[in-house]
Amino acid sequence: MSQRKSSTRPNVTQLTMSQQKADALHQYQDTDGHFSLVRNFRLADLVTIMNGVCGSFSIFSSARYLITNDIDYLWSALAFPLAGLMFDFLDGKVARWRRSSSMLGQELDSLADLISFGVAPSLLAFVVGLRTYLDTVVLTGFMCCGLARLARFNATVALVPKDEAGKAKYFEGLPIPSSLGLVSIMAYWAKNGWIEGKEGIPWGTVTLWGKEGGRGELHVFSFVIGFWAAAMDMLLAAMDIYCRVPYPSSKTRRGTKMVSTDDVQRLFLQAIFSRGILSGKLAQTLWAKCVAAVQAADPDLAIPYSNSKDAWDAFVTRVNRSLDSLDLEFRHLHDENTGKEMYALVNRKGDEIAQMATEYTPAEIAYFKAIIELIMLAPRESFSVSSTAALREVSAIRPKTNMSKTQAEVVLGSFVAKGWLVKSKQGRYSLSTRSLLELLPYLKSTYPDEIVECTICMEILTRGIACHTNNCKTRMHYHCFTTFRRRHNACPSCRTEWPAKHSETPLIPVGEGAARPGDEAKRRARSEDSDADEEDYAEEDEPRKSQQRTQRSQRPKTGKTAQRESMNVDDDADDDFEYDPVKKEKASQPTRRSTRK
Asked: Which of 55, 327, 457, 487 has its CA 20 to 30 A from that of 134?
């Protein structure tokens, strides 16, 4: 039983981030030839590098201005950061257009921003006149604060609250591109000639200590730059004062949080994991919700969706293709009572039930296997077991356990509550749709001779009807019979005329309706995989003495003795049933075997 426990489930955010980082590291391993680093670059990464190129040109232009005093170099140094902002905006657009993202792009974005919006503006401030000792200290602090700001963003971007579109609702601190505000102020000064020299910079200087012109001199504008640096580095945030500025970040979309069409399947599977089994209608509704959520995160993303059966089948095929390497399958089965299409995520391997369980103890799993055996080996294809027989089975669990009948009753209630078993109003247990879906490989591998399939839909059948003609193998679900009977009035195999309703005679019920009171007197014949299989006892025709019969009833029957005695009980019960074809049908059924070790 594949039971998933939420208490042991790892944090989804941590799991996603760890997996993405592992994939990113594996991607850049140089194991596939030369130039692997260059070949791993995406078009958006090249656009990001152009941002860094613009910042570098601004730095060199500032240096040339210091050497030549040519004002054209100063204007070039002021213009290149603005060009870098354009490339910083375009890289996110290109990433969404190409539908590609990488952790490399996120790191490149931060490094390029540091050059264009951290180092370049600081050097510009130096060349226009902020050249005192304390000015250089402030400008150095400005660059370091920008560096810390970008490092914090990369570390916490996954934890920042997002809006419906997947963008960060706020940033703690000013984004580093806001330094272009300082650049625009310096451009205005350059236009008016308010640069260079102690008196050229507006607001002048102040002397904090020592004599005028010494190390204690500082331009007033440096206080503005220092405050800007503090806002970026979140020194205000350290005092619980957050600067939350709405800012559509391309890094959030380009980094690990960028959405793609594959996110539809990821969201859909997460919803399936949390539900276990669900109807086809609900599954299609979840699909539509997942498409809408991903579409809201990126309106430019083209996601194929259509409210049609062909589109749904194509989506299920894509989901199963992604699960193929895990030997999992998103499989459907019709509910045997209502005919509704049900879906569940199942393990395609025929693993033992104990290997699939995560919540029940080994004793409880062994008990569940014993209940399944009783259900699958039930006589006359009744595929059910009474509560009395189910509780009595505790003593037959191998290996022996100390589970009491009171505990077994609680465990049975748990099986019903978890959806593994169904309990009818008559108190009989049968397999649920969830069990038939998730345990189908186990049932087919363990009970291949007992599996009954519907003649119409070819799905496993534990509730329905059987043709009353002797040796006819036709079996149908109730809903399949109703659909078939609308157009045909005879059995598809033997052409015997059928009644209009499945509840009418002479149709033979399959499932709980086929059970008889005598079935619970003694257990169905079972063969044991031990030396007792070779013991052959004579069939008892007459009753024994009361004491011998009591002693024999307390001793487990083995080999052919148990088989013959059980068959006598079944025949006696059949004699009480007044419809003759049932007895003929019963006699033609093969003896069912046991898998009990």
From this structure: 55
Burial class (CB in 10 A: 0-12, 13-18, 19+), 178: middle
Beta bridge partners of 332: 343
Residues 6+ apart with CB under 8 A from 14: none
Q: For residue 64, how many other CB atoms are within 10 A of its CB?
A: 17
Do residue 223 and residue 364 come from a single domain? no
Phi, psi of 286 (to 5 degrees): -65, -40
CB 4 within 8 A of CB 358: yes
Q: Give the residue among 137, 146, 150 at the shortest CA–CA distance from 229.
A: 146
**222 and 367 inside one domain:** no
Query: Domain end: 254, 288, 313, which one?
Result: 254
Query: Is the CB of residue 51 less than 8 Å from the CB of residue 112?
Result: yes
Boundary of a domain, candidates 232, 254, 276: 254
Which pLDDT score is estimated for 337? 85
Is the separation of the CB atoms in 359 and 484 below 8 Å? no
Q: Tell me which residue of 397, 389, 388, 387 sits closest to 363, measured CA to CA.
A: 397
- CA dist 505 and 498 (Å) reads 9
**Residues 430, 565: Cα–Cα separation, whole Å:** 26
Instruction: Specify the 3-state DSSP secondary structure of 385.
Output: strand
Helix (H, G, I), strand (E, B) or coil at 71: helix
CATH code, domain carrying 379: 1.10.10.10
C-alpha 412/C-alpha 420 separation (Å) is 10
Q: Which residue has the tokens 């500025």?
A: 245
Helices (H), 399-545: 405-417, 433-438, 440-446, 478-485
| CB 582 within 8 Å of CB 574 | yes
Q: Is the C-alpha dihedral spanning 294, 296, 297, 299 positive or negative? A: positive
pTM across the whole model:
0.48
* Statement: residue 534 has pLDDT above 50: no
Structure tokens at 145: 């604060």
pLDDT in tens, 352-376: 554 444 678 888 888 898 999 999 9
Residue 178 lies in a domain: yes
Q: Alpha-carbon torsion 100, 102, 104, 108, what sign?
A: positive
Contacts of 81 (CB under 8 A, 6+ apart): 54, 55, 58, 116, 117, 120, 121, 124, 179, 180, 183
Residue 21, token pair as written in the block: 């980082």
Domain of 226 in residue numbering reads as 40-254
Nearest Cα to 123, choosing from 54, 177, 46, 61? 61
72 contacts: CB under 8 Å, gap ≥ 6: none
pLDDT score of 429 more than 50:
yes
**Within-domain flag for 282:** no
* Integer Rg of the chain from CA: 38
What is the spatial distance between Cα 307 and Cα 285, in angstroms, rounded to a whole number? 10
